[in-house]
Amino acid sequence: MADRIGDPTVVADNVHLTYRVHGASSGKGSATSAFSRLVTRKKAAGVTEVHAVRGVSFVARRGEAIGLIGRNGSGKSTLLRCIAGLLPPTGGKIYTDGQPSLLGVNAAMMNDLTGERNIVLGCLAMGMTKQQVAEHYDEIAAFSGMDNYNGKDFTRLPMRTYSSGMAARLRFSIAAAKSHDVLMIDEALATGDRDFQLRSEARIRELRKEAGTVFLVSHGMKSIRDTCERVIWLDAGKIKMDGPTEEVVAAYEKGV
Ligand SMILES: Nc1ncnc2c1ncn2[C@@H]1O[C@H](COP(=O)(O)OP(=O)(O)OP(=O)(O)O)[C@@H](O)[C@H]1O
Ligand SMILES: [Mg+2]
C-alpha cells in the first residue's frame, strides 16, 4: 500500500561485484583448446574476472515489494547475495536497516533430517525462541502442505525424499512464518505448483503489509505483476530501468 511506504530499508550506492574465478582457462577459451587440454591433461591456469554487478544504485523503502527482472546472468542473484551480506561488494556501499534474509540460502536445510526437524531448526536459525517455534510449527507445516501431501505426512520423512518443489515449499513456509525487515526471494515461487504459488503470493503481500521490504526475483512476469508495484530491470549488471511494474515489464517484454 502506497500510504505505508516509509523509511529506507536498503540503500545501494554504486555497487560493484566482481567474481574472481581461479583456475580458469588463460587462453581464448575455445572448445578446441579445452579439448586439447583434456587430451594432454594440462591444467588450466590463471584468474578470470567476471564483473557481475556494475554500478547499481537504488533506495528500497519499508512497505515496498520490488521485482528484480533480467536475462539469465544479468546479476540478479549476485545483487541479492550482496544485499544479504553474503558477498562483500568489490565497489560501492550497501546500507541496510535490519537483517536482510535471502530465502533458500539463509535457510540451511538438512537433507537427512525430517521435515519436522528442519522446521524446528529453520525457525531457531531465524532467531525464534523454542516457545515461538512451538506456536508457529503447525501453521508452517500446514502452509507448506507437507503435513498431508497426497495423503502422506511428509514432515515425518527425511528431506531427501522431497521433490525440489516440495523442498522449496517448505523453505518458503519456514521463512514466511516470521516478519522480516527485508525478505528476498530468488525464484522460489517458480518451483511451486499453481496452488502454492497463489498462496505464497498472498503471503508476500501480507509480509509487505507487516512493513518489511520484499525483493522478488522471477522470470514469471505474472508473479511479478501480481506481487510487486515496482520493478528493477537488470541488464548485464546495470540497472536498465527502475519504475512502476507495468512500465518496466512492458518495456522488458518488448525488448526480449
Ligand atoms: N560463483 C560465481 N563465480 C563466478 N561467476 C559467477 C558466479 N556466480 C555468478 N557468476 C557470473 O555472474 C554473472 C551474474 O550471475 P547471476 O547468477 O547473478 O545472474 P542472474 O541474473 O541471477 O541469472 P539467472 O536468471 O540465470 O538466475 C554471470 O555472468 C555469471 O556467470
Ligand atoms: Mg539467479
From TrEMBL:
It comes from the Bacteria. Belongs to the ABC transporter superfamily. Residues 36-254 form the ABC transporter domain. Keywords: ATP-binding, Nucleotide-binding, Transport. One of its GO terms (cellular component) is membrane. This is ABC transporter ATP-binding protein. The keyword ATP-binding applies. Gene3D superfamilies: P-loop containing nucleotide triphosphate hydrolases (3.40.50.300). GO terms for molecular function: ABC-type transporter activity; ATP binding; ATP hydrolysis activity. PANTHER family: TEICHOIC ACIDS EXPORT ATP-BINDING PROTEIN TAGH (PTHR46743).
